[in-house]
Design brief:
Length: 473
């Protein structure tokens, strides 16, 4: 099976995990800028009110890997690997520092002009996420984040500004990173602070509705600005398997999968799915919709389905089995006895990628784009300035094989961007030592280091993969 000659190979990062320069050139604070690293980060993510009132000793997003000042050097390295596409995000508070200003911050806009021009110089297509876990903090404190309908206006204004500005430079856009993350880490996904006496589900689904409407409105604006622009949704994917063949387990897996697909059902098909009433009723949720919402969702669905894939997941109705849990990409899951796991407990399942891709394509019949996949691992820099990361090559080789199998199954796939193509700060733990990159960055968990970049063994391996369009793995 051969991939299309225009297959978009590349890598991905997010502004808040790479750029640093957290207050430079007029940037405002993003919600992620108040989060520490390590165990305290998890606490803060689950109880963000603590983060709002605590002074931590180190905030990893403040400097990250200083991509803001190193982007030329980094893009040159991506070009050397042969990248056709580079996924990053625009930091919303770099453009609107508080989120609710009348005018955008020109310096912030200039930075992305320079960044996208640099990509273009090497024939690299930017793929840009509008909102990747960095809603302006001011919108969280003053408006309550995405629970407030006003966020739709602030977001669409921001979208209008960046579409206008980059309409000829950026063709591929994603409206929200991992839109289903709002269910699992509502602060990250929606800037939500949930009170104890509130129905959490009500707040989350209402906020998600606002994001869905905002996503469709952004699509409308994009199409009106330049009809060539293509818009994608973005799902934290990973099929949820039933633990056993007991019908109860199968039914539970159907329900759990629907929970993740719910938002993509709307974004891809342009309407809430047939199971919505029952689904919301079970959660005691009453969605407030405004006149015109349903029309806008219908008229402006996405063009393609992008997703992250790190692992499959597992569910059971058996209380005893349910105790044997492990971590995963924000979503805790059951330990699958057939799978090995990374040092962070994320289970490794390449076939799960093929399964997930087939499910997504069967469900939506729209082109797919894998925009995140990779292995977070501890790397050791050798004396001769490289990292022998055979474990990463092994992980990626198996996943890329599975991806190509899925394409041979008939799935239409636009491209593949591996996550953290250069080492960046981990979103979940805030650590630097959880590394995904082909390029090592000299920086540790406490923020010490020279920020010098080194090519790992996987750098040369991935270069070959791209050169041969996936034929030499
Ligand atoms: C995804 C996010 O959830 O997983 C990324 O979109 C994140 O921002 C990635 O970095 C890997 O997770 P982590 O916690 O290992 O950084």
């Amino acid at each position: 099976m051969k991939l299309d000659k225009n297959f978009l190979w590349g890598g991905a990062v997010a502004a808040n995990q790479a750029e640093g320069a957290y207050l430079e050139d007029g940037k405002g604070l993003a919600l992620v800028d108040i989060l520490p690293s390590g165990v305290k980060r998890r606490e803060a993510l689950l109880n963000p009110k603590v983060a709002l009132t605590t002074n931590y000793s180190h905030y990893p997003s403040h400097e990250s890997i200083d991509f803001y000042h190193h982007y030329k050097e980094d893009i040159k390295l991506f070009a050397e690997m042969g990248f056709k596409v580079f996924r990053t995000s625009i930091s919303w508070p770099r453009i609107f520092p508080n989120g609710d200003e009348a005018e955008p911050n020109e310096k912030g806009l200039q930075f992305y002009d320079a960044l996208f021009d640099e990509c273009k110089k090497y024939g690299i297509e930017p793929l840009v996420t509008l909102n990747h876990f960095d809603t302006p903090l001011h919108l969280v404190k003053e408006y309550g984040g995405w629970r407030n309908r006003k966020l739709v206006d602030f977001y669409t204004k921001y979208a209008q500004v960046v579409f206008d500005r980059y309409k000829d430079k950026v063709k591929y856009w994603l409206t929200f990173n991992e839109i289903n993350m709002i269910l699992h880490i509502p602060f990250f996904g929606g800037g939500l602070l949930i009170e104890e006496d509130e129905n959490e589900e009500q707040v989350k689904y209402q906020a998600a509705h606002h994001q869905l409407v905002a996503s469709s409105l952004a699509t409308k604006i994009a199409k009106e600005t330049n009809p060539q622009i293509m818009i994608g949704c973005m799902l934290a994917a990973g099929e949820i398997y039933p633990y056993s063949c007991h019908p109860n387990d199968i039914w539970k897996s159907v329900q759990e999968n629907r929970k993740q697909y719910f938002f993509i059902d709307v974004q891809a098909r342009g309407e809430y799915p047939s199971y919505t009433s029952k689904f919301l009723e079970e959660r005691n949720v009453q969605l407030e919709m405004e006149q015109g919402d349903e029309e806008i969702l219908k008229q402006y669905p996405v063009d393609f389905i992008s997703f992250s894939y790190y692992s499959s997941r597992l569910t059971s109705t058996d209380p005893e089995i349910n105790q044997n849990r492990t971590t995963g990409n924000a979503i805790k899951t059951l330990r699958n006895p057939h799978l090995k796991a990374s040092e962070w407990g994320w289970q490794i399942d390449p076939l799960g990628l093929r399964i997930t891709m087939n499910q997504l394509y069967d469900r939506y019949q729209k082109p797919l784009f894998i925009v995140e996949n990779g292995l977070g691992a501890v790397d050791e820099l050798t004396e001769d300035g490289t990292v022998d990361d055979d474990y990463r090559i092994e992980y990626m080789r198996e996943h890329i094989k599975a991806m190509i199998e899925a394409v041979s199954d008939g799935v239409d796939l636009m491209g593949y961007t591996s996550w953290g193509c250069i080492d960046i700060v981990s979103a979940g733990t805030g650590e630097m030592r959880k590394r995904y990159g082909f390029i090592y960055v000299d920086r540790d968990n406490e923020g010490n280091g020279t920020n010098k970049r080194y090519k790992k063994k996987s750098f040369y391996w991935y270069k070959k993969v791209i050169e041969t369009n996936g034929e030499e793995l």
